[in-house]
Amino acid sequence: MRCIDDAWSRHEADLRRFLRHRAGSNTEGDDLLQEVFLRALRQNNGLCGIDNPRAWLFHVARNLLIDRLRLSKAQVPLPDDLPAGEDEPPPRVDGLTQCLPRALAELSAQDREAITLCDIEGITQQEFAQRIGLTLPAAKSRLQRARTRLKRHLSAACQVSFDAAGHVAGFVPRPPLK
Question: Are 149 and 103 in a shared domain?
């Protein structure tokens, strides 16, 4: 307790000024000061094991100020009679399933295998890597390149367009392979 008493008597006034100034009110600054010293009390061996108690106390004070700012984001109350927003349904892509088998068939065997196993059959990338005898990073790269080529192919062959989030926004159906 002696180390905490010494730190309190030496640094309390400076910490109080620092916290009151940064917090914007004396009351909030004093609350933060109390929290700093509560954290000091919870330290193993108090502040005795710390080389520079002043630096530690100011570091804790600064972190408390940051936490307080994160929690105090301005909120605007909404009126009670505000109508509930209706989410727009995603664009219908049911017909895209007609284009996918044909587009997959037009990809290379490696690309088709990667997409079929991981994205359609749902095996993990680790299982995919083991099945084809590659390292996990190499299998991930192969799958990513296959997805990129499929997206490019769908864009060209089916005139698929994507929104900013990468979701299908529209397409022109192609007749399936016979």
Answer: yes
Has residue 127 been placed in a domain? yes
Neighbours of 11 (CB within 10 A): 21
> How crowded is residue 64: how many other Cβ atoms within 10 Å of its Cβ?
19
Whether the pTM exceeds 0.70: the reply is no
Label residue 122 left, alpha or beta by phi (over 0 means left) and psi (-120 to 50 means alpha). Answer: left
Q: Which residues of the chain have pLDDT under 50?
A: 90-91
106, 61: one domain: no
Distance between CA 29 and CA 25 in Å, rounded? 6
Give the number of domains in the chain: 2
CA 20 to chain centre: 33
The predicted pLDDT at position 86 comes to 55
